[in-house]
Amino acid sequence: MKNNYYILLFLLVVFFGCTKKSIVDNYMAPSVDSLSFYLSSANDINVSFKSKQEYNKKAFDIIINLKDDSLNRVNLFKVANRYYNMSDWNAYRETSKFILERSKSNHDTVNMAKAYTYLGDYYGFKTVPDSAFMNYNKAEKLYIRINDDYNLAKTFLSKATLQYNVSDFFESEIMVFKALRLLKRLKKTDNLLYDSYNLLGILYNEREEYDKALEFNNKALVILEDNKSIPLDLQLKATSLNNIGFVYLSMHNYKEAKKYFEKGVEQKNLFKERLTLYAILCNNLAYAKFKLNESEGLPDLFYKALKIRDSLGLIPGVVSSKIYLSEYFAYKKDTLKALQYAKEALKLSRNSNRLTNRLETLKQIAVVDPTNASVYSKEYIQINEKAQKAERKMGEKFSRIEYETNEIKDENTSLNIQNRTLIYVFSICALLGFFVYVYMIQKAKNRELLFKQQQQIANEDIYNLMISQQNAIEASRIKEKNKVAQDLHDGILGRMFGIRISLDSLDKLDDATAAVKRKKYLSDLREIEQDIREISHDLNKEKSELINNFVAILDKLLENQRVTFDSELISSIDSSIKWELINNTIKINLYRIIQEALQNCNKYAKAKTIKVELKNEINYLSLSISDDGVGFNVNRAKKGIGLQNIFYRTKECNGTVDIKSNKINGTIIEIKIPIDQKINLQHNNN
User: Which residues are in coiled coils (predicted)?
Assistant: First the structure.
């Protein structure tokens, strides 16, 4: 009976694969009109097998000549589905391989995973479980990579079915629960959840855990009742009713088993839509009736199931039906028929590679042919050992495939960890480098600031030295002036006094000599007058030069420019500016700005004329420096040290800079520095 249930599961899995693949047909319409016709005709149940193949081949030929994109691969999957539905396994395999290669060349991970699933289905049907498991495993890794949990759950379920088929029940159970965890997280209640509960029911029945088997089979039924979107033509309710009935059959509760088998057979359109399942239910119902000693409809119900299975070429099902018939006729004491069906079943099972079929047959024939029972028992032991070895070997293969895949995964994980470590190390080094860079920049800025502060102090010192020097010169001049005044007093005034006395004495004379002497004294007075005028002129000039030391220093800078360079220098300093009221910092920065501007003109401008103007405006001291040179790119030159110094010094004075330069008009630097209003008031009062 376990063998019968194994056959049932296999047929259900094949059927589910077929029906699920047909859903893909409506996914996307082809881009060529004739393609739609060929694909539709290849799936038409009223068309002959040969014609279906031809239509599908024509559809394939159209698709491979179209642009290789995702739509193209969807249509290729449609072709594969039709080959699956018509059981053209070789064409199905080749089409799936073709899709896989195209998906690989396009780095299409989604369709690569799907193609691996199709190949897994192919090898599963061809009973090459290790190849099927390997392809499902590849699909699983890809679905994990792209985070497709739903298709990953579907792949887990396919692997679980394979593990069940090789009697690796424990691993199969683990795989089903993996699928269930994903489905619960996705909150899916579709036919995939139904398939998971259904397979768990079958697994627990095989392990003779009948309570759990019934629990999960009933959960599967609840899914069908709650989810009305599951297509009725899948006849999943009939499947569950059969599975529950089979659990009761295994428990020898034939009355309950019969009740569920009868409900299953009565499902609407079952004969038309699921003939294979209908045959299974008929066979199981007949067996339940036989065990209940009910003769109604027997053995015709057995024959009916056998005829359907034989017409469909379902060898495992035919073997199961003949075993039941052998048991039935043995009970009816019809030894010849019992032996006949047992021998026919044994012959079919020996031509099949399904060892479980042969074991069930040998067990039955040993009962109905006691004469040769020892021979059959011996063969049974040999086949059983062979089956156990094959199951163990296949389980080891599955484990090895899992291990090798996980080993590759671990290597990739190790590489990823190494790469991640390298990234971390690089990031830390880059971060440290950045911090060092910022530190060095900040340190350089601090040094620059310190240098500027020291430069400012030095400028103050230089200016003070210049003032001191000028004061020393002024002191010398005052000393000289005092000397001149003394000389004027002692020399010129003495001479004038002598001449005046002499002239007074001439008034008493009235001869010719008096006139000559008077004329001589008048000439001496003219000489004294000229000496006084020269001394007065020199003193007035000196007073003008010494009005302010800054103007003298600035004049000296401008005079050096005129003497040293060929360009003409025109300077204008507003005489109304009260330099004694202007802060020394402003004076120093103005001096340095003019010095820097003249230096730039001399180095780069090639100017013929340079103009320097200092004007007193309302609330501003205005400095204008212009030339008729070659000009420069202001935006680019702003990065230069010279212009940066001008901007920096103007900023120190809270002033503004406006620089205009071009090749035609040369360069104009205009600087406005705010000054205390009292300077302007002083200017206005003056």
Answer: 345-393, 518-545
DSSP secondary-structure letter at 370? G
Rounded to whole angstroms, how far apart are CA atoms 310 and 35?
36
- Position 13 pLDDT exceeds 50: no
Domain segments of the chain: what residues? Answer: 1-147, 314-375, 458-545, 549-685
Which long-range contacts does 248-256 make (Cβ < 8 Å, 24+ apart)?
Answer: 249/1, 249/284, 249/287, 249/288, 250/1, 250/5, 250/205, 250/208, 250/210, 251/210, 252/291, 254/288, 254/291, 254/292, 255/292
CA dihedral of residues 662, 668, 672, 678 (deg, nearest 10): -160
Asked if the model's pLDDT at residue 23 lies above 60, the reply is: no
pTM: 0.54
Dist. CA 461–CA 35, nearest whole Å: 96
Residue 468: pLDDT band (50, 70, 90) is low
Residues 336-345 pLDDT 10s: 998 999 889 8
Whole-angstrom distance, CA of residue 419 vs CA of residue 416: 5
As a CATH number, domain 1-147 is: 1.25.40.10
Structure tokens at 439: 């530190």
- Report residue 6's pLDDT band, with 50, 70 and 90 as the boundaries: very low
Phi/psi for 146 (5° steps) reads -95, 5
Q: Residue 389: CB partners within 8 Å, gap ≥ 6?
A: none
Question: What is the side-by-side order of every strand in the sheet holding 666-674?
Answer: 568-573, 609-617, 620-627, 666-674, 656-662
CB 583 within 8 A of CB 674: no
Could you report how far apart the first and last alpha carbons of the chain are, in Å? 129
Question: Under 8 Å CB-to-CB from 82, ≥6 apart: which residues?
Answer: 39, 42, 43, 52, 56, 59
Give the list of residues 6+ apart from residue 62 with CB closer than 8 angstroms, or none: 30, 32, 34, 35, 38
Contact in structure between 593 and 671 (CB atoms under 8 Å): yes
Determine the residue type at 53: Q
d(CA 586, CA 590): 6
Distances (CA, A) of 408 to 39, 422, 558: 40, 21, 83
- Rounded distance between C-alpha atoms, residue 256 and residue 267, angstroms: 17
H-helix segments, 231-334: 236-250, 254-265, 270-273, 275-291, 300-312, 315-331
Quick one: average pLDDT of 155-170? 85
For residue 283, give both structure tokens. Answer: 């066979």
223's tokens: 């899914």
- Write the pLDDT tens digit of every residue in 540-597: 554 444 445 778 888 888 888 888 888 899 999 988 888 888 888 888 888 889 988 8
Residue 569: CA atoms inside 13 Å, Cβ hemisphere, count? Answer: 22
Return d(Cα 133, Cα 136) in angstroms, integer: 5
- The token duo for 651 is 């900023």
pLDDT of residue 435 exceeding 80, the answer is yes
CA 566, 568, 574: angle at the middle one, nearest 5? 140
| Average pLDDT of every residue of the chain | 80
pLDDT (0 to 100) of residue 211: 93
Q: Is 612 left (phi over 0), alpha (psi -120 to 50) or beta?
A: beta
Using DSSP's 3-state secondary structure scheme, residue 351 falls into coil
Q: Which CATH class is domain 549-685?
A: alpha beta
Which residues, 6 or more positions from 18, have their beta carbon under 8 angstroms from its beta carbon?
A: 84, 85
Residues 642/657, Cβ–Cβ less than 8 Å: no
**SS3 of 617, please?**
strand
The encoded tokens of residue 225 equal 């009742």
